[in-house]
């Protein structure tokens, strides 16, 4: 099931996408009084999910009292517009990306790491599908893309064994871990270079965990101006999702709504020879099998996370 945050009639709402992708059913019309996606993740019950799945399979005219809006008429927002905490990101979690990053990381070897490399990504407000990424031209000349599978925790996780990790997952979405490489290099760490405003395109929605076999083995691709630049599979993660959830939850509580972004494969701009960075007017398409496509254009000015009209790009 696909759950989304959207705007219609100048109001931000939550909804479920119909099975045919043509309609959005508002959660409140199903009796679900959640103020935002974070509250829904914390509170939604199995019976409510079953109801939503039942409704999603039917046409609007077959359901009395259910508010339905054509998908083409809504403005998509990021599924979690304002994450409650920094996004937990994984560095160099695909072996081929580790190899291509060796020079940028100023390392002589590209050995498989013994432990996961974690860093935080500050997000004031996440960008939506079809929204412009601000280029921050005065700050960076090396804007880069990173398509990543993002995992959303569904219940409080503490000291979780790997064998039980899947039961703590609410769903999955796509994150473009936009990065300013010059700032990363200058500061010798990744936090600031990955946390500028507008550097967290996310979406286009959340796909609930029951829709994707665990562990996910999904094709993951990036296109820049239509050209394929990243092409891999999430089965190639160095540290899998179960291992990551278990590792992080040892001594650190993961709350419902926590977002874990699992890393990007090879093909990033920094790894090309010569490096190939994004510029105003470029379009980045981040695609993950079973979830959809997250599309964003690099703007010409600062821009701002306000959402864009849905274009039907699923």
Give a nutshell description of this structure.
The chain is of the alpha+beta class and 314 residues long. Helices cover 12% and strands 28% of the residues. The longest helix is centred in the N-terminal third of the chain and has 11 residues, at 46-56.
Description:
The protein has 314 residues and is an alpha+beta fold. The protein has two domains: 2-76, no CATH class; 87-309, Fumarylacetoacetate hydrolase, domain 2 (Alpha-Beta Complex). 12% of the residues lie in helices and 28% in strands. The protein has helices at 37-43, 46-56, 95-100, 181-187, 241-248; strands at residues 2-8, 11-17, 23-26, 68-70, 75-76, 87-91, 117-121, 143-144, 147-153, 169-176, 179-180, 202-208, 219-224, 227-233, 259-261, 283-288, 292-297, 308-309. The chain is globular. Mean pLDDT is 92; it is low at 303-314.
Radius of gyration: 19 Å
CATH class of the largest domain: Alpha Beta
The share of residues in helices is 10-25%
Estimate the global geometry from the Cα principal axes.
globular
CATH architecture assignment name of the largest domain: Alpha-Beta Complex
Supply the CATH superfamily name of the largest domain.
Answer: Fumarylacetoacetase-like, C-terminal domain
N to C succession of SSEs: EEEHHEEEHEEEEEHEEEHEEEE
């Amino acid at each position: 099931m696909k759950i989304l945050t959207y705007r219609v009639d100048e109001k931000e709402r939550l909804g479920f996408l119909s099975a045919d992708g043509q309609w959005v059913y508002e959660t409140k019309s199903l009796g679900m009084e959640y103020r935002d996606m974070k509250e829904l993740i914390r509170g939604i019950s199995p019976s409510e999910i079953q109801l939503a799945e039942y409704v999603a399979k039917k046409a609007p005219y077959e359901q009395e009292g259910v508010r339905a809006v054509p998908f083409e008429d809504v403005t998509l927002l990021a599924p979690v517009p304002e994450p409650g905490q920094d996004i937990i990101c994984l560095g160099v979690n695909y072996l081929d990306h580790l190899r291509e990053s060796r020079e940028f990381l100023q390392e002589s070897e590209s050995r498989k790491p013994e432990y996961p490399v974690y860093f935080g990504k500050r997000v004031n407000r996440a960008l939506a599908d079809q929204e412009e990424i601000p280029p921050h031209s005065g700050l960076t000349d090396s804007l880069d893309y990173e398509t990543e599978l993002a995992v959303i925790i569904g219940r409080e996780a503490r000291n979780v064994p790997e064998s039980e990790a899947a039961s703590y997952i609410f769903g999955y979405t796509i994150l473009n871990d936009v990065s300013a490489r010059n700032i990363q290099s200058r500061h010798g760490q990744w936090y600031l270079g990955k946390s500028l405003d507008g550097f967290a395109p996310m979406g286009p929605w959340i796909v609930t965990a029951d829709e994707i076999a665990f562990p996910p083995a999904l094709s993951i691709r990036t296109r820049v101006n239509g050209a394929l630049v990243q092409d891999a599979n999430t089965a190639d993660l160095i540290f899998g999702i179960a291992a990551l959830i278990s590792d992080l939850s040892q001594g650190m509580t993961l709350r419902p709504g926590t977002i874990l972004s699992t890393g990007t494969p090879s093909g990033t701009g920094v790894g090309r020879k010569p490096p190939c960075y994004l510029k105003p007017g470029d379009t980045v398409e981040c695609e993950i099998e079973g979830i959809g496509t997250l599309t964003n254009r690099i703007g010409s000015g600062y821009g701002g996370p306000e959402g864009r009209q849905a274009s039907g790009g699923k």
